[in-house]
Amino acid sequence: MPAPIRLRELIRTIRTARTQAEEREMIQKECAAIRSSFREEDNTYRCRNVAKLLYMHMLGYPAHFGQLECLKLIASQKFTDKRIGYLGAMLLLDERQDVHLLMTNCIKNDLNHSTQYVQGLALCTLGCMGSSEMCRDLAGEVEKLLKTSNSYLRKKAALCAVHVIRKVPELMEMFLPATKNLLNEKNHGVLHTSVVLLTEMCERSPDMLAHFRKVRQLSSSQLVPQLVRILKNLIMSGYSPEHDVSGISDPFLQVRILRLLRILGRNDDDSSEAMNDILAQVATNTETSKNVGNAILYETVLTIMDIKSESGLRVLAINILGRFLLNNDKNIRYVALTSLLKTVQTDHNAVQRHRSTIVDCLKDLDVSIKRRAMELSFALVNGNNVRGMMKELLYFLDSCEPEFKADCASGIFLAAEKYAPSKRWHIDTIMRVLTTAGSYVRDDAVPNLIQLITNSVEMHAYTVQRLYKAILGDYSQQPLVQVASWCIGEYGDLLVSGQCEEEEPMQVTEDEVLDILESVLISNMSASVTRGYALTAIMKLSTRFTCTVNRIKKVVSIYGSSIDVELQQRAVEYNALFKKYDHMRPALLERMPVMEKVTTNGPAEIVQTNGETETAVLETKPPPSGVQPANQANDLLDLLGGSDITPVIPTAPTTKPAAAGGELLDLLGDLNLTGSPVSAPAPQIAQPPFLLDGLTTQPLFNDIAAGIPSITAYNKNGLKIDFTFERSNTNPSVTVITIQASNSTELDMTDFVFQAAVPKTFQLQLLSPSSSVIPAFNSGTITQVIKVLNPQKQQLRMRIKLTYNHKGSAMQDLAEVNNFPPQSWQ
Amino acid sequence: MIKFFLMVNKQGQTRLSRYYEHVEINKRTMLEAEVIKNCLSRSKDECSFIEYKDFKLVYRQYAALFIVVGIDQTENEMAVYELIHNFVEVLDKYFSRVSELDVSFSVSEIHCY
Lengths: 826, 113
Description:
The complex is a heterodimer.
Chain A: H1 7-16, H2 20-39, H3 43-59, H4 67-75, H5 79-92, H6 103-111, H7 116-129, H8 132-146, H9 151-167, H10 172-179, H11 188-204, H12 206-213, H13 223-236, E1 244-245, E2 248-249, H14 251-265, H15 269-285, H16 291-306, H17 311-326, H18 330-343, H19 348-352, H20 355-361, H21 367-380, H22 386-399, H23 402-419, H24 423-437, H25 445-455, H26 460-473, H27 478-497, H28 510-522, H29 528-544, H30 549-558, H31 565-579, H32 585-588, H33 602-608, H34 614-619, H35 627-640, H36 648-655, H37 657-674, H38 681-686, H39 688-696, E3 711-716, E4 719-727, E5 734-743, E6 749-757, E7 763-766, E8 781-789, E9 798-806, E10 809-817
Antiparallel strand pairs in A: 1-2, 3-4, 4-5, 5-8, 6-9, 7-8, 9-10
Chain B: E1 2-9, E2 14-19, H1 25-40, E3 49-52, E4 55-62, E5 65-71, H2 77-95, H3 100-105, H4 107-112
Antiparallel strand pairs in B: 1-2, 1-5, 3-4, 4-5
């Protein structure tokens, strides 16, 4: 076989390839040649082949067949072989491959080699990809090398030690004695790596940190003064050619030392005090004309903000940041904005001083800077500057890239909610956001806005007029159209009567309003949800408008055969309202009362507050999103449906029109969502306990934590008890367990009683069971609900006692349930 | 912590890549392509730090070659920026006026550095 080509030849050949396919072909050919060469066990050219393999690996082609070859190269005696072998090991191998353990012996031998370069190679490789087993085996060797006088080896050993500590934190103690003398070196390389090692130790273990902070009795100095001294030397010493970077002596070491000082000084007064002087010195003496100086200043500022520095120093730091902000260099401005974001929580007032510069950054062309400036601006908004800031932010919203719009819009809503100086301003701001970035607004903003609008009672006329004007021109932005249709539906009468005080009232006729709502319904751009809003709005207007009721009836009946099921259902129900229940229509479509802002979910309230307070539930959700109450209501009607109560209904509304509004609104919930109109109200009012039972078979919480596996708690003598779990996201210390007891024997089990006991840290509530007879052959089950309160989130354990009659004899059994899944109590 | 160190040219060809954390080989090419796309779309006036997924990219352009370093949140971006320049200066000294060709042909030597 001819000698394999050199790496350079290969690279040259690949460069001549003009397409990806050509390149792939060349590489495959070469790979085949390499593979056959490997098979021949050719020692002389192995090094060359592996080098080519590494190049191909870099280009993205698989090279795993070279791993063993790398090992062979490492074991060879030639330095060039070893070099490529170790490089290959670093690039191709990692912990996931089993082969890497074979390297351990080789590395061990090489760590004790006579040539320092070979030792260096071995240290490098171990530090790059050593697994925890390898590290454990070889840590002793590394530690020995850490103490040699050879600075080339010492610095590599220090970095290797960092890797060992990362992989096997328990070995940190072993390296502690060696670190004592590390900082006494003159060689910057060793100094640098030692600082890295110390930083890693301090970050990993609070014990180490404490150890390094306190005074050491025997040795001459503590760590902090030592570092301070080194730093001082670096700054004060004159020009030193080997460490100079643009006029500053070894900036990389300076930055590392500053970072270590930061870790040492965090939350520790003594250390912080020791550093104050040097930090001030660095901050004032460093030249800022070059980027290097700025890098050091940046690190200094970060350190000052993090430790317990005195206030003068903090002011100095913020001033430096302010100066950065005015710099022309983008990098520096970006860095300044990032650090200001970190400090705005603690030093709010100082940062406020730079507010105008920050706001100017919003207009910058650079995407990264704009994002930082936006976040910082939101952090700086407060009651005093909210008007000015909002103006700037709204202008930014107009002109920014789409990726920012969603975040910006949500930020503006939050800020407006917290600091709005007046309701009108708030509504104006919201309108502005909706019109400029309407399609990027998040979905949950719509109900929030609606609730806000209903709360500002005096602004209704103004709001609806502005919204109407907004969608007149353009009805493509869904959130805007949704809010607008809802408002027009509610306050259409105000719109038509031209009552607005705040603005010049518009002359709008009922037909025009209906025109716009119909066009929303017809338009292709409207989402299904939006159409639902529009249809409901049109329906509500049937009570508010006087002359166009026939038109509304027509529109509603058209949609009775719409393809969209949601629309069809609504239209059919509204039709029913017109035809059969016209007397109820005014009360049903009355104006919504002011909504309470709700933090818990509607259905939970249905469970606890049956009967008259169900109106509260509906008030907290605008009608279109009342899907959850549907589930519960469905149950109710399933249980109660079919009972022949129609005669009762007509009397109820006519006798108490005002109060009837309450119960009928209730009806509205059921009507809208289930379609079977009227059997609900009377039984609802008359039989609360029944409903509660019915409801307990459904999930009690709206926001169920997903999928907690159920367990079989007991299975003996034909009696099987299963536990299923539900937990609420809003109240995580309550777990609701539903037990189901089934009987697989041939005879029924009667008088079944289930009792449970839990450890003292829990509280238990047992609700009544569905029955006390378990039918045979698994033909039915008893269900019972247990509520467990677990405030300390401890492991759930339960002891259960079962008593029942079976085959004529009384049975009793005690059992302990320990196999609760972790999701049920964590 | 530095996650990776790349030298990619304007056409998207990787001249040098060093990963300090394990990344699948097919994901590497994708990562490199995306990174170079991000860098190419920036103008000269924009800053050299890009936020990409959950880490930051610090890049510097030298003629037709982009040197990109991926770092996480704990690193000082400006120090890394200087490090890139330092690295280039060393290469310059070693190869006496380094060019992209030198980098392509001497990959293994540069790795050892």
